[in-house]
């Protein structure tokens, strides 16, 4: 059984360190007034938690045991706490303090679709609450039960259902079980020469079912599509029976029921199987690093790439603040590396007229046959040059590719040292991206000033489309110590989210709604849009048994809690 740290990210015994990154300590001191050598807080010991007895009446337990087998119904304290929430900042802060909230009363682990259906029937018959659980990595508050929920709360962990069931090679489709984690999924597909091509930064600890239920996007979405494009067929256990969506390439059967399941966060039922696009493992795959003199030249280059004939698998450009942060996390260089980077800096300043403070780092990925990759690189190279950018080779890109799954550990490192760090991401048409960026940066900095705290905000563009792209903001600050720190966090996070919707962008490009973003839903999709979703959830789940309160808030969950 694979289980993440109950209080933070990733595997027990693995953590982020500054010790091999000589630039990071000075960077954090300068921008956050954070001392990397001073650990200020640690999560409380598990033994000190006040874990309530499970509310699991005998007949509910009996029905669950009949559904999945007695050995797959757990009421163990650690299991219940580890399934209570996801990994958003509020989840981490409250868990670290020992404020575990309304934890599930039991964790059940169905082994096949029949068992999933039986769990669904048992929950509806016994009026229990079901919360499907994949890897628990969501950062939108998609798993937490309403604080006042009096009915038994059952977390349905899909981890035993982790197989590739079949591959239809003619159609490039694979039938998959929902509880499979990213690495195990790719292993199974790669062994047969295929890949899904979905690599979110949470890849190592998230599952197919979770990706579908949150409309996830992976780093290579420019090539393979987002999960919403990749997912064709679905089998979902609902309270009205089995919902079956055939894996057809396109259909005109009215409003898309497939799309209703995508992003449904467990509110319509439990996804027990999905049929998804798979592709032959590419012959060649490379990520190159580029530098642009300014953020606006980087944005313009990404827009031109999206509009042109090139089709790279990854397009990403960081603003100058994220570029400076990336350079500060570089591992100690050899003497030769130091000489090379000095030479590059001089070349950029003297020969290309770059202001090194404004410079922006970019990664562009290519996949396919050797010829395809070479042709794509040439097309992109021309666009980059037109925008005064330069290619800095494959070294930085490969390093980024290797490091990306370690980066999530940094939030726990910062929390240990007293800083709050989080992300907010959005998408907007190309024409709005410039003003959107300016507004978010201004609002975030105004919120730091209002709180009187030292803060930092940085951004990158990733996931390019015909009509626009995703902007991904990361922010961090040292709380003032004068107020509840989660209240201060809410001031900053809300300012950023509000700037998104005020700028014509969406509340989230790929992190879903949960309870974290529900406050902005009406401004994003309009009042009738919310009415449609409410009607859908109420119609399919009249007893409010399925992950209540997510996406469209219920009465007792209108905003995320500010610590309790
Ligand atoms: C460090 C970090 C990096 C991240 N990077 C990315 C990224 O690059 N791209 C991205 O898209 N997201 C990212 N995320 C967010 C998160 O990983 C995604 O939302 C992911 O899709 C969640 O998958 P999961 O298996 O962990 O789902 P969970 O967190 O377990 O569940 C999420 C929601 O899906 C529902 N659900 C899960 N399984 C099923 C099922 N079988 N049937 C019905 N409902 C189900 C749950 O009830 C819940 O509402 C990141 C998160 C973290 C913490």
Please characterize this protein's 3D structure.
The protein has 564 residues and is an alpha+beta fold. Helix content is 37%, strand content 19%. It contains 20 helices and 18 strands. It has helices at 24-32, 58-68, 77-82, 89-97, 113-126, 182-190, 208-214, 221-224, 227-230, 257-261, 295-307, 320-328, 335-351, 370-386, 395-403, 410-416, 430-451, 485-502, 521-525, 527-540, and strands at residues 73-74, 106-108, 129-133, 153-157, 164-168, 173-176, 194-195, 231-238, 241-245, 270-277, 279-280, 284-292, 314-318, 360-368, 390-393, 420-429, 455-464, 468-477. A 7-stranded antiparallel sheet has the order 15-12-14-13-17-18-16, sandwiched between helices. It has a 5-stranded antiparallel sheet with strand order 5-6-10-8-9. α11 (295-307) packs across α14 (370-386). The longest helix has 22 residues, at 430-451. The chain is globular and about 75 Å long. The two termini are 31 Å apart. It binds flavin-adenine dinucleotide. The site of flavin-adenine dinucleotide has 38 residues, from β3, α7 and β10.
Bound molecules: flavin-adenine dinucleotide
Strands of the biggest beta sheet: in what spatial order? 15-12-14-13-17-18-16
Uncertain regions spanning at least 5 consecutive residues: none
What's the N-to-C terminus distance? 31 Å
Instruction: Briefly note the structural class of the backbone.
Output: alpha+beta
- The tally of beta strands, per DSSP, is 18
As a whole number of angstroms, the C-alpha radius of gyration is: 24 Å
Q: How many helices in DSSP terms?
A: 20
Shape: globular
Q: What does the average pLDDT come to?
A: 95
Beta-strand percent range: 15-25%
Report helical residue fraction.
Answer: 25-40%
| Main beta-sheet annotation | 7 strands, antiparallel
